[in-house]
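Input sequence (523 aa), recorded before submission:
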Amino acid sequence: MKLKLLALSFVVISANIVLCQEEINRWHLLDVNEDKKPGVSHAQALEIVEGKKAQSVIVAVIDGGIDTNHIDLRANLWVNEDEIRNNGIDDDGNGYIDDIYGWNFIGGDDGNVEMETMELTRMYRKLKFMKWEGKLQKDSEQWSEYESLKKEYNEGFDAAKVEYAEIDQIYKVVMEYHAAVSEQLGKEDYSLNEVKNIKSADEKLSEAAEVMTLLLKDGLDFGLLEEYHESLENEVKFYYNLEFNPRDIVGDDPDNFLDTIYGNNDVMGKRSDHGTHVSGIIGAVRDNNEGIDGIAMNVQLMTLRAVPDGDERDKDVALAIRYAVNNGADIINMSFGKYFSPNSIEVQEAIAYAEKHEVIMVHAAGNEAKNIDEELHFPTQPFQASNQENKYWIEVGASAPYKNKYMVAEFSNYGKNTVDIYAPGVDIYSCKPGSKYESSSGTSMAAPVVSGVVALLLNYYPEIDRSRIKDLVLNSGIDYSKQKVFLPNEENGKPPKVRMGELSNSGKIINAAELLRMANETM
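Predicted structure, token format:
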């Protein structure tokens, strides 16, 4: 059991790079030459535009919601000036009543969707019911799809149940030992030395102290352990649950894209951790002596709640994109994704609508260490099938704070044809609901780094040709294409090394200073 506990602590912290606290809090802003960390060179970027006035930029954040009361965000929230606050009237005539900060597409009159199933589950459930009702013919394409979905669903659910059972057992033992140590010391938070100094004739307490000493030496983080346990529990209870359908809360038909007026104006919800963290990276208030500084200077954060814990619905994503465009967003950040998309055409039409209006769209590549050239991660570029480039879409992988073989995050999806550029996405310190802060890792963190850098560009060069921005971002990135890095791999064993140029089409990490320097030279 002790060996399994030690292995668990390694798994839980394996995505986190150990840095000093000051570097952890801001490494993504640092410069690879001056600070020896491959961040975005934020201070150097500001030197280039010193004396220039930062123009306002609107960044729409399609996510799980934002804590609109956060002390480091509330001053930078987009506000719909055409809507009178909380009067129960659709003042601007867009169909959404009291959409002050944006809109919640996963809410209804009686509450909000917080948990959801996976799209795989929804698609399998739909065809399974058709099979039961005798509407599926065994020689049809739908039957083949049903069999394929059934196989993937059963394999995924079985694996999730096994993993959850193992971790649940370990989690309960760890928490039991933690409770014993806490009772002995009289406090929940204790140091390694305090545990090492526990001397007791009680065999159970002695064992608890011994195990907790080993775990703390190995860097166990109780918060991450609890988060890991909860995520596996949610897979079993919600993601793969064929009986769970929270969409009744919303009250719409999720497959009817003409049914557009639904939701509510509660853009925070109860699970806004992810969207709050993403938003802080982009646009936390700068120089206010609070927790962090965002990347962009003069920014308005538009809140579009469309991503529950589970897979987002295509309709909500499409309508959120259109809402952002119609309300003046310059950039749309999308730190979400899934591997099935039954209404992808409608989402692609919304993306094309944003492109037509020259809105920059930044999308996280995903965290499954997959090659998304081979397995599409939705929403994806709408013109990929016809080999046409969307000049307003930037697909982002996650990089780590090392200029060596560990530079690409072990969890990051990749793809030489699909991923455009990498950005810092490991141990990014940002906002948490309740005016708190925490570090988090994922391509979900890398995407807002890019959104923030693009916003910084538009702060100082608002007149720039929007169709050139993607090329500028890619051309100005720091070139690591020949750097050998470990191929992203979350499985056990040592992964092979590849050149970074094989993992994205640029082989680069975004750099704000070089981007602004290049923009300044070409204007």
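Checked by second reader. Residues 121 and 403 are 40 Å apart (CA to CA).
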